[in-house]
Amino acid sequence: MTELLADLQAHFADKYVLERELGGGGMSRVFVAKDERLDRRVVIKLLPPSVTATISADRFKREIMLAAGLQHPNIVPVLSAGEYGALPYFIMPFIDGESLRARMMRGPLSVRETVTILKDVVRALGFAHGRGIIHRDIKPDNVLLASGTAVVTDFGVAKALSASRQQQGVRTSAPTMTGVGTSLGTPAYMAPEQAAADPSTDHRADLYALGIVAYEMLTGAPPFHGRTPQALLAAQLSEIPAPLTSRRYDVSVPLSTLVMQCLEKEPAKRPKTANDVLRALDDPGILVSDAFPAAEAPRQRRRRFMELGVGVLVVAAVAAAWVLTEPEPTPGTAADSARIASARRDSLARAAASGSAPAAGPRSVAVFPLVSVGNDAQASQAAEGITSELATAISRVSGIRVSSQTTAAAVRQGVRTPADAARALNATMLVEGTVQRVQTRLRVSVRLVSVGNDSTVWASTFDGTTTDALALQDSTVRAVAAAVAASR
Question: What is the pTM of this model?
């Protein structure tokens, strides 16, 4: 038991038995404890000195306890608050599940799963907003998933920090970073009015953050991913996100419209309330995508496949037009792959810490395994075959170097986004995609990404049937290889 843990145990001796410290607490240190009297587990969130140096602990306690009145199935309530020495803490129930962040690390979410989670979060926001409480830091880390339900945690914390710092005359309007634990939001999810330190910021800032979380669930990364905190704040103020439909192809028009409306720079252009968002999400049409149109006439289908074939040829050429600066080791065993992946993840971490990216070769491509949407067995089989053929076809393009599939897959599992994984592989371009099955129809969505700015260079979709999956595979692979080559 660490010295801090031992001291905390002495402080809570008559109430709780501390068990362990949890990592990833963001602005607080989080400890799991057992409430012996009520036979339940709780989490104790202790604010560190770097946060508490400029706040009033008494004021913080009063403010945080306002959130204790939020009793709702989708909100993690505050049970109590107090001080350990000069450090404020608050106590919440322990949620036996995982964060939305951890869930997204395992792979993309289906549209249905995304909508289900969004509904739960919106219910929590609607309840809190109706009682005058704004979260101000909605992000995947503050959404917990347990027993098929999403719950929102840390309501009132940002407001309590702001109010307790204001009391001491400390200016709180400047947009600070959660990296140092003193922000009124996280730059990647911060509404423009928060970034601008607008004192009239209201509940619609939470709806903007909700839009970014939805965007990330559907595409794998928030709109302005990979930038410095300062650049993120600038983008939130002035840059329009790439349309959701340009990043994922099985999203319905109503859902895409709703998410992009939440991301409007002007609060007045966003949905008026969380309840308006919930009503939109409850519309059955939100799950109906145009990805699989109804029956097409044979001539129309032939014409469509010809157009798609030309498009796919463009993708493969682009991916092939890049070469790794260093030879790609060929792992002989799974242990070799893990070692190589670990070394490259370490390299990426060092580069991130120094503020620079690993040097990328002029023509290098990382082909990541295509993902089955919904973990469908037939779609997974098709995804595996297409991925293998993509890597082979691109490697045949003259002057192109492709990361081995084994290494690429191993590295991808250890980092947050495909772009981060590609940087770890010293690749300047990456190919990724999804495969979805609806009854007997298959849809393959592929995109080519520039690693430097995490932007989509080329993207397309390809339709086929489960009875002719090889034809779909061949047309997709030919098109991607041609796209890579054509990009040179």
Answer: 0.61
